[in-house]
Specification:
Blueprint lengths: L1 E10 L2 E11 L4 E5 L6 H8 L6 E8 L2 E2 L5 H7 L1 E4 L11 H11 L6 H15 L16 H15 L3 E5 L7 H18 L2 E6 L3 H5 L4 E6 L2 E6 L1 H10 L15
Parallel strand pairs: 3-8, 3-9, 6-7, 7-8
Antiparallel strand pairs: 1-2, 1-4, 4-5, 9-10
Helix pairs in contact: 3-5, 4-5, 5-6
The structure holds adenosine-5'-diphosphate and magnesium ion.
């Protein structure tokens, strides 16, 4: 469903990813690990065609070239980015955002149906009803913001979810609850998930089918879940001597 081919990403003159390749299949859960500053968030932003980055290479999503598509069009095609630090949006309530998001995804519904769907979304995400007319993420803690972002996930009905450091700022119970809500969504829709992380706690809740390690602008190593456990114990430095051909691909 997602094919990234020979992707090079630059911010100004700085090359952040170089000749990066990644395939994600339908329903697959892929973990991307790498130390701070290795380019994980940049990968997400490049996928979404963030204007700060220059790209070479191609990004194919569901057989369509989205390399140069507008960010909002990429979202409409079904890629959802759960940001590392979700932003506060003044003047836009969750309810109006959900309404617009559903419209953008081509869902036509009257007020009655919308309210019914809204209640369903609240129930599925476990979000307190009082937040529904709250401005998006306004004055929420880091963890509450991530929980609030689940509304967007359920409203936009994506087929690919990018979880950027979901675990950062979340206590163990919140991480577990949010992971469960994401897994519930995945079971319902067979969406694919890319989990960006630098340690394995989230991976114990959302088990990846494959783990890739970014080092020096590219994936240097891939393996199963045990690779994440090894990194948790030994850190990232030992991966520097590995090349992608050393691994089990
Ligand atoms: P990670 O998410 O793996 O911690 P990032 O993708 O955020 O890393 O950043 C990778 C590197 O690229 C860092 O050195 C960061 O400072 C740099 N970088 C990211 N975005 C920009 C930008 N817009 N302008 C300049 N440098 C950037
Ligand atoms: Mg990051």
């Amino acid at each position: 469903m997602l094919k990234i081919k020979d992707l090079t990403v630059k911010a100004g003159d700085k090359v952040i990813l170089e000749n990066f390749n990644l395939n994600v299949k339908n329903g697959e859960i892929v973990a991307i690990m790498g130390k701070n500053g290795s380019g994980k968030s940049t990968l997400c932003k490049a996928l979404l065609n963030h204007p700060d980055y220059k790209k070479e290479g191609t990004i194919i999503f569901n057989e369509e070239d989205i390399t140069d598509s507008k960010t909002e069009d990429i979202a409409k095609k079904g890629i959802y980015y759960l940001m590392q630090n979700p932003t506060e949006i003044e003047g836009v309530t969750n309810a109006s955002y959900i309404k617009e998001a559903r419209k953008a995804r081509g869902i036509k519904e009257d007020v009655f149906t919308f309210n019914k769907e809204l209640n369903k979304i609240i129930e599925e995400t476990g979000i307190d009803k009082k937040y529904i007319h709250h401005n998006i993420n306004e004055r929420l803690s880091g963890g509450e913001k991530k929980k609030n972002e689940l509304l967007g996930l359920y409203a936009l009905n994506p087929s690919l979810i990018l979880l950027d450091e979901l675990d950062s700022g979340l206590d163990i119970d919140s991480l577990k609850n949010i992971s469960q809500a994401i897994l519930k969504y995945k079971e319902k829709t067979n969406a694919s998930i890319i989990i960006i992380t630098h340690h394995d706690s989230i991976l114990s809740y959302i088990k990846p089918d494959i783990v890739h390690v970014i080092w020096d602008k590219n994936i240097k190593l891939s393996g199963d879940y045990t690779l994440a456990e090894k990194i948790e114990k030994q850190g990232f430095s030992w991966t520097i001597n590995m090349t992608r051909s050393d691994n089990n691909e």
